[in-house]
Amino acid sequence: MKRLNRNNRLNYFLGFVILLIIEILIAKYVRDDFVRPYVGDFLVVILIYCFLMAILNISVIKGLLIVLIFSFAVEFFQIINIVKVMQYQPPEPVMIVLGSSFSTWDLLAYSLGIICTAAIEFYSSSAVIRTGK
């Protein structure tokens, strides 16, 4: 099996910043039934992955799995309405992260985001091996 090499941490940080700006623009200006809910969810797992890889020294596979498990856990917390179960009203930023309703389409968007990220990592790792850099 081919080993996936990590990119430079600066690349991950730059990816995080660019995706964060895109996510903020989507949240602020887009009011539709596709880009905001699904493209936003697709991009948010890539954003979290970039952040994780920028700050931690973990393998690509471990990073991908952590982000996928985290995003699925947040989505499944919506089924049980975790805020009601905890009987605590968290601050608004926490509520934005937790979301308000479960959707299998969100799980698909998260999965596609992770698959796309894995493909990019695989391709960039292959390019490094081919060029010898």
UniProtKB/TrEMBL annotation:
Pfam families: DUF2809 (PF10990). The chain crosses the membrane at residues 12-30, 42-58, 65-87, 107-129. The keyword Membrane applies. The keyword Membrane applies. Keywords: Membrane, Transmembrane, Transmembrane helix. This is DUF2809 domain-containing protein.
